[in-house]
Amino acid sequence: MIRHAVSSDAAAVASLLRALNDEPGLSPQRITPERVTRDLIEDPRALVLVAERDGTVVGVATAHHAYDSGQSRWGLFLNDLHVAPEARRQGIGRALVCAMAAAAKQGGGDHLWWNADEGDELALAFHRTLGAEQAMVTDFLLDGDAFDRMAGEHGA
């Protein structure tokens, strides 16, 4: 069953997001139930869906609204999509993406946008089975000292 996350899901969502983000250069230890509750579940800017099987949360998807100025259209940016290893290959990931697409459509949007780690062949193959097209873009991230420096230049 796919549903909106509630505060009582925070520990399970945090655990899934830590597993998703457990790779070099990331900080999964920062993903706590308290932060998940505050920054995702209770924040109206975020959409958090969970997949539940037999009363246990086994998958999560997070998204936020995004505007594609090149196509003059609204949609959702799918930040996270993760299914627990023991629950994979049962249609749960697909169901989460379908629910996000439905949420985008219900909100007047007409697309989902997301990225995948380069070299993650399993994820890339999964995304292609959904009918998603690979966009020819390169992602950039401005954070830390560089972010603070740029923000500090505004109005300086």
CATH architecture: 3-Layer(aba) Sandwich
Rg over CA atoms = 16 Å
Number of helices: 5
CATH class: Alpha Beta
Fraction of residues in β-strands: 15-25%
The helix/strand order is EHHEEEHEHH
Task: Tally the beta strands.
Answer: 5
- The class by helix and strand makeup works out as alpha+beta
Helix content: 25-40%
**Low-confidence spans:** none
The domain count comes to 1
CATH superfamily membership: Gcn5-related N-acetyltransferase (GNAT)
Largest sheet: 5 strands, mixed
Query: What's the overall average pLDDT, rounded?
Result: 93
* Order of the strands making up the biggest sheet: 1-2-3-4-5
- C-alpha end-to-end distance: 51 Å
Per the principal axes of the C-alpha atoms, what is the gross shape?
globular
CATH topology heading: Aminopeptidase
Main attributes of the structure:
single chain, 156 residues, alpha+beta, Aminopeptidase, 5-stranded mixed beta sheet, globular
